[in-house]
Amino acid sequence: MAFGCANTPKDTTPWVNLFDGKTLNGWHQKGGEAKYEVKDGAIVGSTVHDTPNSFLTTDKMYGDFILELDYKVDSTMNSGIQIRSNSFLYYKDGRVHGYQVEIDPSERAWSGGIYDEARRGWLSTMDNNPEAQKAFKQNDWNHYRIEAIGDTIKTWINNVPASHLIDDKTATGFICLQVHSIKPDKKAGTEIIWKNIKILTDSVSKYSKKSSLTPINTKNNLTVDEAKNGWKLLWDGKTTNGWRGAKLDAFPAEGWKIEDGVLSVLSSGGAESRAGGDIVTNELFGDFELSVDFKLTPGANSGIKYYVDTEINKGDGSSIGLEYQILDDDLHPDAKLGNHEGSRTVSSLYDLIKADVNKPINPVGEWNTAYIISKNNHVEHWLNGVKVLEYERKSDDYRKLVSESKYVKWPNFGELDKGQILLQDHGDLVSFKNIKIRPIK
After folding, report:
1. I need a labelling partner for 373 at 20 to 30 A (CA). Which of 131, 142, 336, 398 fits?
2. DSSP H or E segment with residue 431
3. What is the SS3 assignment for 132?
């Protein structure tokens, strides 16, 4: 025994305790009204009825880190550890959202999986990891190690690799201990207990561990829930398959670049459709949901058009269709133009309807997510998870807006039952990725 102790390597990792073992100093509660208290050197969370998910949240925000903790959970309870999570008033009235490392004592046994709370749903499940599923100890203490470094999140349960995810949706946020909401027929007062909560934020790469798992990469790939719900990739992240020039039979030979899973229209001096020109899908779409990540450069202009018919406007300029505007509102002069005030700002319906002025736009140089849904002629534009405008295609109000716009010269503008999706070349460097669509039948 003496020999064994003498040869046990000492942990020299410069951990910092997130929990002092006595108080909840450094933490505050968000979301629901579940009960959190300190007992016997541990944090105890208890379920209550008639309240949404509850989150005991760190006061500090964390980007890159390694987190370790122990927990014991009631066998009837679902829970999780939120990481890189946030709460903004503009997003679902402040609802906590972000990555969650699942705690799942049910027969499904997805503990250690990664769920995107209040956003995209499941990112990494345990279906193909039976070793991690078996590693969970029912009605006993379990140990988690969670590494979040750059765009990579790795988890271990009781030293068994559980998840290996590459995803760059969110780079920083708080850490939370979740007590899940319960249904009326479930017993209130069931508990989850956490202890030995410690974090490392310095020299994290030095202390990172290798995982034996093949990583799940969400870039230009469907998530678990997207695949289940009928989404498909509109761009494969590598080739020009499925796309052509709006006024060509093939993809443009110049003016566009594919590199590292990013599709970029190149700068050519700001002129509309003068270099490579717009690109459009080969396929036509009627009702749909569309999601596109985009990144602006200073002063840039572009757009996502839908219900496009490339047979309209064979001359100079862009092909004709309804446009989700992509623009640097601060530096591009178009932000102050338009037949309807503000209708050429980012995420607006170009030249027709101004997006909500309180829209949550990320700074130039960072990625933003555009989302468009069109169903039974009801159309909505969303930006970074927040609805910024809606309208009824083919309605009297819509037609009046068109009559007052630059589109008045195009008969029945925007009223096609089916059309192409278009990415615009406006002569400025703008990048796209994660281009996905769900046809609505």
Report:
1. 336
2. strand 430-439
3. helix
How many whole angstroms separate alpha carbon 393 and alpha carbon 416? Answer: 10
234 vs 236: CA distance, rounded Å: 7
Beta bridge partners of 79: 103, 179
256 forms bridges with which residues in the sheet? Answer: 265
pLDDT the model gives residue 1? 45
Lowest mean pLDDT among 94-108, 270-284, 295-309, 409-423: 270-284
Dig out the tokens for 142 from the structure: 């379990």
* Residue 173 to residue 96: CA distance in whole angstroms: 10
- DSSP sequence for 242-266: TEEETTSSS--SSSEEEETTEEEEP
Residue 223 per-residue DSSP state: -
Closest Cα partner for 385 from 370, 400, 367, 407? Answer: 370
The pTM for the full model equals 0.93
Q: Which residues contact 201 (CB under 8 A, 6 or more apart)?
A: 16, 62, 63, 64, 65
Whole-angstrom Cα distance, residue 318 to residue 271? 10
Q: How far is Cα 50 from Cα 270, in angstroms, rounded to an integer?
A: 55
Q: Residue 106's closest CA among 128, 75, 144?
A: 75
C-alpha–C-alpha distance, residues 305 and 317, integer Å:
14
The contacts found for 376-385 with CB under 8 angstroms, 24 or more apart, are 376/287, 379/322, 379/349, 381/324, 381/347, 381/348, 381/349, 381/355, 382/347, 383/346, 383/347, 383/355, 383/359, 384/91, 384/359, 384/360, 385/91, 385/92, 385/97, 385/119, 385/360
Element of type H or E holding 225: helix 224-228
- Cα–Cα dist 117/98, whole Å: 5
Coil, helix or strand at residue 151:
coil
3-state secondary structure of 354: coil
Q: What are phi and psi of 190, to 5 degrees?
A: -70, 150
b/e map 213-250, b = 16+ CB within 10 Å? beebbbebbbbbebeeeebebbbebeebebbbbbbeee
Q: Does residue 8 have a pLDDT over 70? A: no
Structure-block tokens of residue 114: 């990664």
Query: What's the distance, CA 92 to chain centroid?
Result: 14
**Phi and psi at residue 323, to the nearest 5°:** -125, 125
**Section 282-304 average pLDDT:** 97
Residue type at 305?
A: K
Q: Are strands 378-383 and 386-392 parallel, antiparallel or unpaired?
A: antiparallel
